[in-house]
Amino acid sequence: MDALETWTRSEHTADVNGSPTTHPVWRKGSGPGVVVVHEMPGLTTGVIDFAEELVAAGHTVLLPHLFGPVGRPFGAGDVLRTLPRVCISRELTVLRTGVTTPVAGWLRSLARELHAELGGPGVGALGMCFTGGFALAMMVDDAVAAPVVAQPSVPFAIGHERSADLNLSPADTEAVRRRAAAGCSVLGVRYGSDPATGTRFDTLSALLGDGFVRIDLPGKGHSTLTEQRSQVAVDAVLAFFRERLRA
Description:
The protein contains 8 helices and 8 strands.
């Protein structure tokens, strides 16, 4: 069975680096909106299964597809095939510090469109792994009222500077700080021993103070909501969206 058989496919076009860019988007559910940005290597069945939990909890969920395969289980082979392409993509950044990933503008546009349709206090934005920090870039826009950062892993945690970097420009970092100070809290979930996340949670704690709700899970693992799914993490995300998105 196609993992997305019960979802409705469409496309969204918005600017990326000055060029109109189109990506497919799958949609399902009703209620307050949530944009779930998939992890490496693509829109896997694990990501779709988590999105189904959000639908069951009463959300309209959008699944944009930015890279990699669609509807397949996580596989190391897919990671090896996808990663080189992602590393040279003009839409994404993997090593540079102090910059916002270019595809953030496309994602903000998608969130604005969903919020304009559904109304309410805003929509949720969740990034994971490779896209973990994208929710921060999206919350620069007021349409996002509930940003969730799950095991953010970009830029790759090589050296102190990259390990601490949030994948945001200085201007966007300041916008995130201001929004958090005004009441738009950020939820972060990760396994505490996961080296891929570097020291980004420490950076967020210092930047946002009480505006950063930090969950460091015990044990070994990386993908908190999918491959090494933690019920504690899933419950925290569901509660965060319920609290922040219900008018």
